[in-house]
Design goal:
It contains 13 helices and 25 strands. It is an alpha+beta fold. It folds into 3 domains: 159 residues, Periplasmic binding protein-like II (D-Maltodextrin-Binding Protein, domain 2); 177 residues, D-Maltodextrin-Binding Protein, domain 2 (3-Layer(aba) Sandwich); 93 residues, Immunoglobulin-like (Sandwich), CATH 2.60.40. α2 packs across α12.
């Protein structure tokens, strides 16, 4: 059974209370939508709540969703077959007139694998972006390849005592039982961040578990002094306003275990057809491992593939949808793929795990809602609602392979478009914040959430 079905049944029977006996104040709409399988698990949770809740859905609108792919969603929305659609990628052609992108939620893309015969058996595989790129480019074909083995030895992450960005420089030094942080800012930085705080947060990274705890904050000035209690081995994320400078610490840290790999061929599963998950995964490969993955992101894996063509020797297997690739990995020892995190979590009992991915701070971090939120903490969002990821972000708790799911809606005034706007508002403002993390998604926050709701306001506006 698919995870989204199990979750939606639970939500339908036990979540937000339904206000009985409230008569609809307007005609109900049936909103048929579909597309992205990446966001489908959370959509099914939220639409089950929305369809049954007369407090937020007083007309009794019915939201339907058919999970397939972002490509199908975009095409069906443009043709008028769908009143709304989910997509993790943008139109490159065939876009309809008078429509809006609405960011709905973010989430991790798991590099999920099934590998029996490693020692120790309980170890989780760690891979750098370059190694991931070489695997999916067909350049690394065996699990005991030296590049994979090199990523899976006990490593030392050197202390980083200074970070800087946009004219702000922060240093850290240990004095007795305290850590002293000093931030200096140029005149242009003072103007850019006027009234914004310099914040210091203790970061704990344990594979797929990441936490941040703010320990100090002061408003920006030409020279700012902050302090916190010294904790051996801890790293500290530095931000100015919404801008991440990276992470600092005074101790070098050791992490990981040395894994012995079997001499086993790698079997790569990829999405057939067009997929927003494929677009975001190959965009990551091009952005973080550009020397290996030389082509830009694309909805079609075969078009993004950096070689002349995807290998036809049986080592690569196309499958339909996130369930298709995830099931292939579940059923085949030595297999690896990419899919939204919940599809990997559903199959954890079937020898499926998520790779820990090396980030720009030198940490190997697993996919999680918190690690996705750290990655998008300062992502740029433009006036059309499109979010641009930064693959150079240096936060120690950031996971680098993520996607934003967009809802598509029309500006044209109509009863159905008004209903789509209400549904999106509920999803962004009510359901995702309460249910997203439990389903392995990162709800929108801060400036991105504000912009997303402003995009919702454009639907049905004429």
């Amino acid at each position: 059974m698919k995870m989204r079905k199990k979750i939606s049944i639970a939500i339908a029977t036990g979540a937000l209370a339904v206000t009985a006996g409230v008569a609809p104040v307007r005609a109900a709409s049936t909103l048929n939508g579909g597309g992205s399988s990446f966001v489908a698990n959370l959509v099914d949770i939220c639409r089950a709540q929305y369809n049954r809740n007369s407090t937020f859905n007083s007309a009794g609108d019915i939201v339907n969703y058919t999970s397939s792919s972002s490509g199908t969603g975009k095409t069906s929305f443009a043709s008028g077959a769908f009143a709304w659609a989910g997509s993790d990628s943008l139109y490159t052609s065939g876009a309809p007139a008078n429509f809006v992108y609405v960011p709905l939620v973010a989430g991790s893309i798991s590099v999920m694998y099934h590998l029996e015969g490693i020692t120790p058996a309980s170890a989780t595989v760690r891979l750098s972006p370059d190694t991931i790129g070489k695997i999916f480019a067909g350049q690394i074909k065996m699990w005991n390849d030296p590049a994979i083995q090199a990523d899976n030895k006990v490593t030392t992450v050197p202390a980083v005592k200074k970070v800087s960005k946009n004219g702000v420089v922060v240093t850290v030094a240990k004095v007795g039982t305290k850590l002293n942080f000093t931030a200096t800012a140029t005149a242009s930085a003072l103007s850019k961040y006027k009234g914004k705080p310099v914040t210091v947060a203790k970061v704990v990274v344990k594979g797929a578990s990441t936490t941040r705890t703010q320990v100090a904050a002061k408003n920006i000035a030409s020279n700012v002094a902050l302090s916190a209690a010294y904790v051996k081995g801890a790293t500290y994320a530095i931000k100015v306003g919404g801008t991440s400078l990276g992470s600092v610490g005074v101790d070098s840290t050791k992490s990981g275990v040395t894994i012995k790999f079997p001499s086993l061929p790698i079997r790569v599963a990829y999405r057939s057809g067009t997929s927003g998950t494929t677009n975001n995964f190959t965009k990551f490969l091009n952005g973080a491992a550009g020397s290996v993955w030389t082509k830009p992101g694309n909805d079609a894996f075969t078009s993004a593939f950096p070689g002349s063509s995807v290998p036809s020797d049986g080592t690569f297997q196309a499958a339909n949808g996130s369930d298709g690739v995830a099931n292939y990995v579940r059923d085949n020892n030595g297999a690896i793929t990419y899919a939204e995190l919940s599809y990997a979590e559903e199959r954890k009992s079937d020898s499926v795990k998520s790779v820990l991915v090396k980030n720009n701070a030198g940490e190997y971090v697993g996919p999680s809602a918190a690690a996705t939120a750290a990655f998008y903490a300062e992502a740029a969002i433009d006036d059309s609602g499109v979010i641009t990821p930064d693959y150079t972000v240096k936060a120690a708790d950031a996971y680098l392979i993520n996607a934003v799911a967009y809802g598509l809606g029309y500006k044209t005034a109509s009863a159905d478009n008004a209903a789509v706007g209400r549904w999106y508002s509920y999803f962004i403002d009510k359901c995702a914040p309460s249910m997203g993390a439990a389903a392995f998604y990162a709800p929108l926050a801060g400036a991105i959430k504000t912009k997303a709701l402003a995009q919702v306001a454009k639907i049905n506006a004429g």
